[in-house]
């Protein structure tokens, strides 16, 4: 028979699917809807590498299966195309970022198509398309109108190499996420989005969605909600108070000193009273050079200066306490000041050790001589006056009431989450649709004047002053105020690259809508996204941002659901053959084009799903890809042993039912590797039997179709089955027929397993005993002794006690 030749097959079927609009989703349909989404890529110059298809193929499998199950499936794709790499590339090659993007998108699209992914290309979107970013700008204006977009002088993270301000999320251990350069602090006026106003809902509503646990945990930790108290300590020398934030007011009797952050305003306010102000100033200057990460690292030497001239008074017992300035306390969290409890907080403990401050135990049950035990929720209060003998929870309640009554403290919830810095001083992003008028202040553009398009410019290099390149274009900057008509200036910052992706899922439902981000009808039909798969690296950025935007749009009546995604899963990263991350600089990147050319898209798809547990890290392997190719070649040869029978054969019927069940369930649970393994196992049984019925072949290729759609469509056509696989139905199984009728159970003598017997499931004890006794090893195992007892645990084990 004919040899398997992927080159003939794959292009042919891609054309048939496209010509027939096989994967087109209609907005109205009698079928139930299913909306699947993978993270749309940034179309970089390098093109697709083999890491991309891991996510795309997985949900393509689900999409193809859902269609066969009778759903109206939406599986769309688009381009998240604003951003730095394109801009930098364009600058370097003296090109326009628009043209670079166009070229990259064409390349990416060609590559995705060659992988046989079943996207509905009629719904392709591009965040750099003015008809798209018109709505990104429109959403910004709505945020502004509700007071959720505001301008603020910010101490920002500045990357001197990229010449760009970075969000906290983009600073990795004090370094720029992109280029690795050390991040500096600079003061800039920035647009901010008040995501913190949504912090509680972003945590609490996680209970209403089906996200994998590690995603939920990371989001909760990132938002970092903490319940505590703001507490005032009187200052002895002046008529003023020092306010601290503490989650452990119950440890008040264990306070042995106070710490304020180097940026704390108290220092400037009392510089005439502080006797060692020069020393304090010097310390402040040193702290400026460190990143927050360096400052708060647990394992680092604690530094600081004791403030000479200011003393605090403990509100619970009137004790006088020293105040230090130290950089392990941040100005950006809580009140920028703490009460230090070295007996029960690790950093305070380290500091106390270094500065000779007292370490008091106020909660029993920990060993403070070794190291402090943080946040001990168990234990009993000791050395704590009227709190003695209480549990931590009881003590907290009592002391909170005590401080509230004395009017020195209020309960307070704090968050680690910061508002979102929403300006970039770069060219290749959405212009912010705001105008500054001397008379009216910041005024949004009229909505009918959107989109505000990026002007075509000659030079768009970032400036050393940190101003946006747009600031140099007078014709862009100078405008009239939409409010009073007077002269005004446009905002010249652009939006950060997370803007366009914060609402793109909505646009897929209605990509050409000209009156709203998407029409309410389309949104009501499709939203929420039923299943969204993406990288863990987007959990704290994109996933949080887009949930925030969706919630905001829900609040103003633009979208119908409060959460955008019903289910969120994530894939493990794909490493190169050398076990390292694939990267251009290492030269270990494998391009999909090469694999598709040599082995075919189906082989690549099978391998990507078979290489290991989908949720764990996996490694590229040349032998792995060859193994997948061999598997498909053997599937192709099934046609050689096809007979005319239209039913399952007696020998294989049970295997087919079991395989259908297993593959169906595995596809739903991200267990693609075991689904492939099961199909390989069945293939082995079929080939050793030497023949396959028509019914069996149809079932087999239908099960394999979502993973390897081209070869299966081809086989389907060659043997003359009536409809194409993309139009057929998913095979069903009979639960009864999946139950294995015979099982093996171990037989043990005095606790040692000597042999096993094969029995019919649920066989009676007598039947089992009969098998145990007639086994050839029975006499030997008995060792001539007497049987004193026999115990049979049904379908599990037979135990013989001998003496
Ligand atoms: C006394 C205490 C005793 C504390 C104890 C902890 C344990 P979370 O849970 O992360 O909110 N803290 C407050 N503001 C700070 C700042 N600006 N920089 C550094 N540390 C700060 O942490 C709250 C705790 O972190 C607060 O409760 C405070 O120390 C410290 F056994 O107060 B605690
Ligand atoms: Zn005005």
General description of the model:
The chain is built from 26 helices and 32 strands. With 803 residues, it is an alpha/beta fold. The strands form nine sheets. Strands 11, 12, 13, 14, 15, 16 and 19 form a seven-stranded mixed sheet that branches. A five-stranded parallel sheet has the order 2-1-25-26-10. A hairpin with a 5-residue loop joins strand 11 and strand 12. Helix 17 packs across helix 18 (601-610). The chain is globular, with a radius of gyration of 33 Å. It starts with 5 loop residues before the first helix and ends with a strand. The model has no long low-confidence stretch (mean pLDDT 93). The site of ligand ANZ has 19 residues, from strand 12 and strand 16. Zinc ion binds at residues 437, 439-440, 443, 481, 483-484, 486, 488. Residues 652-766 form the Methionyl/Valyl/Leucyl/Isoleucyl-tRNA synthetase anticodon-binding domain. A motif ('KMSKS' region) lies at residues 581-585. It is found in: Cytoplasm. InterPro entries: aa-tRNA-synth_I_CS, aa-tRNA-synth_Ia, Leu-tRNA-ligase, Leu_tRNA-synth_edit, M/V/L/I-tRNA-synth_anticd-bd, Methionyl/Leucyl_tRNA_Synth, Rossmann-like_a/b/a_fold, tRNAsynth_Ia_anticodon-bd.
Tally of extended strands?
32
Q: Give the overall shape, derived from the CA principal axes.
A: globular
**Hetero ligands:** ligand ANZ, zinc ion
Q: Report the mean per-residue pLDDT as an integer.
A: 93
Helix content: 25-40%
Helix vs. strand class: alpha/beta
Main beta sheet: 7 strands, mixed
Q: Unreliable runs, pLDDT <50, ≥5 residues? A: none
Distance between the termini: 66 Å
Strand content: 15-25%
Helices, by number, come to 26
Determine Rg (CA atoms, Å).
33 Å
């Amino acid at each position: 028979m004919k040899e398997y030749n992927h080159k003939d097959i794959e292009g042919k079927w891609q054309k048939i699917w496209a010509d027939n609009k096989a994967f087109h989703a209609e907005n109205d349909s009698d079928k139930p809807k299913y909306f699947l989404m993978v993270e749309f890529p940034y179309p970089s110059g390098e093109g697709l590498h083999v890491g991309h298809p891991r996510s795309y193929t997985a949900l393509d499998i689900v999409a193809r299966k859902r269609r066969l199950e009778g759903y109206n499936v939406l599986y769309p794709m688009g381009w998240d195309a604003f951003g730095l790499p394109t801009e930098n590339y364009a600058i370097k090659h003296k090109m326009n970022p628009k043209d670079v993007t166009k070229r990259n998108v064409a390349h990416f699209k060609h590559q995705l198509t060659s992988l046989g992914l079943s996207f509905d290309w009629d719904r392709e979107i591009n965040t750099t398309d003015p008809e798209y970013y018109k709505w990104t700008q429109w959403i910004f204006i709505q945020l502004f109108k509700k007071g959720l977009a505001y301008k603020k002088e910010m101490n920002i993270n500045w990357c001197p190499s990229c010449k760009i301000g970075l969000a906290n999320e983009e600073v990795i251990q004090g370094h720029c996420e992109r280029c690795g350069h050390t991040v500096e602090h600079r003061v800039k006026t920035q647009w901010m989005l008040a995501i913190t106003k949504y912090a509680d809902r972003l945590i609490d509503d996680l209970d209403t969605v089906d996200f994998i646990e590690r995603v939920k945990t990371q989001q909760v930790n990132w938002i970092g909600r903490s319940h505590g108290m703001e507490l005032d300590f009187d200052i002895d020398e002046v008529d003023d108070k020092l306010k601290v934030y503490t989650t452990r007011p119950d440890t008040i009797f264990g306070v042995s000193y106070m710490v304020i952050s180097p940026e704390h305003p108290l220092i400037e306010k009392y510089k005439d009273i502080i006797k060692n102000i020069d020393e304090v100033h010097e310390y402040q200057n040193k702290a400026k050079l460190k990143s927050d990460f360096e400052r708060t690292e647990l394992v680092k030497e604690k530094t600081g200066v004791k403030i000479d001239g200011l003393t605090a008074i403990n509100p619970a017992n009137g004790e006088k306490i020293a105040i230090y300035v130290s950089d392990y306390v941040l100005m950006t969290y809580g009140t920028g000041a703490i009460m230090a409890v070295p007996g029960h907080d690790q950093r305070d403990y380290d500091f106390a050790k270094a500065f000779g401050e007292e370490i008091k135990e106020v909660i029993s049950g920990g060993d403070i001589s070794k190291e402090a035990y943080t946040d001990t929720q168990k234990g009993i209060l000791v050395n704590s006056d009227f709190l003695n003998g209480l549990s931590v929870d009881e003590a907290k309640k009592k002391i909170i009431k005590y401080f509230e009554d004395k009017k020195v403290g209020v309960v307070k919830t704090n968050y680690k989450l910061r508002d979102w810095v929403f300006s970039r001083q770069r060219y290749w992003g959405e212009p912010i649709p705001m105008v500054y008028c001397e008379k009216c202040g910041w005024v949004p553009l009229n909505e009918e004047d959107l989109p505000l398009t990026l002007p075509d410019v000659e030079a768009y290099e970032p400036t050393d002053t940190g101003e946006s390149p747009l600031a140099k274009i007078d014709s862009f900057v100078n405008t009239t105020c939409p409010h009073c008509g007077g002269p005004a200036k446009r905002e010249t910052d652009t939006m950060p690259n997370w803007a366009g992706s914060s609402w793109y899922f909505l646009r897929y439902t209605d990509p050409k809508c000209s009156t709203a981000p998407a029409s309410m009808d389309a949104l009501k039909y499709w939203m929420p996204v039923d299943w969204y798969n993406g990288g863990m690296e987007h959990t704290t950025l994109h996933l949080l941002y887009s949930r925030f935007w969706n919630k905001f749009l829900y609040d103003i009546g633009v979208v119908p659901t409060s959460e955008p995604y019903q289910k969120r899963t994530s894939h493990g990263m794909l490493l190169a053959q050398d076990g390292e991350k694939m990267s251009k600089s290492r030269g270990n990147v494998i391009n999909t084009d090469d694999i598709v050319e040599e082995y075919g898209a189906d082989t690549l798809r099978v391998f990507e799903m078979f290489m290991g547990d989908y949720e764990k890290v996996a490694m590229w392997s040349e032998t792995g890809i060859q193994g997948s190719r061999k598997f498909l070649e053997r599937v192709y040869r099934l046609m050689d042993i096809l007979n005319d029978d239209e039913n399952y054969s007696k020998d294989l019927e049970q295997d087919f039912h079991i395989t259908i069940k297993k593959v169906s369930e595995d596809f739903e649970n991200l267990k693609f590797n075991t689904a492939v393994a099961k199909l390989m196992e069945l293939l082995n049984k079929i080939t050793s039997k030497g023949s396959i019925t028509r019914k069996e072949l149809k079932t087999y290729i239908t099960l394999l179709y979502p993973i390897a759609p081209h070869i299966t469509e081809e086989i389907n056509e060659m043997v003359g089955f009536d409809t194409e696989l993309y139009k057929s139905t998913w095979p069903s199984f009979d639960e009864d027929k999946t139950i294995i009728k015979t099982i093996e159970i171990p037989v043990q003598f005095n606790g040692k397993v000597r042999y096993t017997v094969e029995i019919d499931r649920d066989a009676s004890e007598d039947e089992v005993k009969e098998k145990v006794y007639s086994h050839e090893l029975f006499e030997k195992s008995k060792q001539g002794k007497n049987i004193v007892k026999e115990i049979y645990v049904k379908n599990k084990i037979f135990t013989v006690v001998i003496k």
